[in-house]
Model the fold of this input.
Amino acid sequence: MPRTRHTTLNCSPGCTVEATLELFGGKWKALILYHLFEEPVLRFGEFRHRLPNVTQRMLTNQLRELEADGLVSRTVFPVVPPHVEYRLTDLGKTLKPVIQALKTWGDQYAHSAEREKKTATGSVCANHRKNR
Done:
């Protein structure tokens, strides 16, 4: 089923947020972009290695959508077997602070969730034990 695209970006106060999330929303697009920030050129197999839980079909679809949205470029080399490389476009590179902010927030969330889990189970880390 094709995605519904925004024709205008002033339809509601949150319309631009929704349109932005459509570009890299979902489980895999943000991770694809993140890995392209870490390694500027990746082949399909390298994505499969970095994202072991994604199916080949889903990865193909997500890469095609990122390419259609102008965030990722795809270069096919005419060799056997086919050699395809993916890299960020200039527009895709502008998402780096957004993806980095998501990672930073996620790191902080994971740390606080782990701390709350330890507190709920009654375990206390060594730093807190000596202060009792």
Q: What stands out?
A: The longest strand covers residues 72-77.
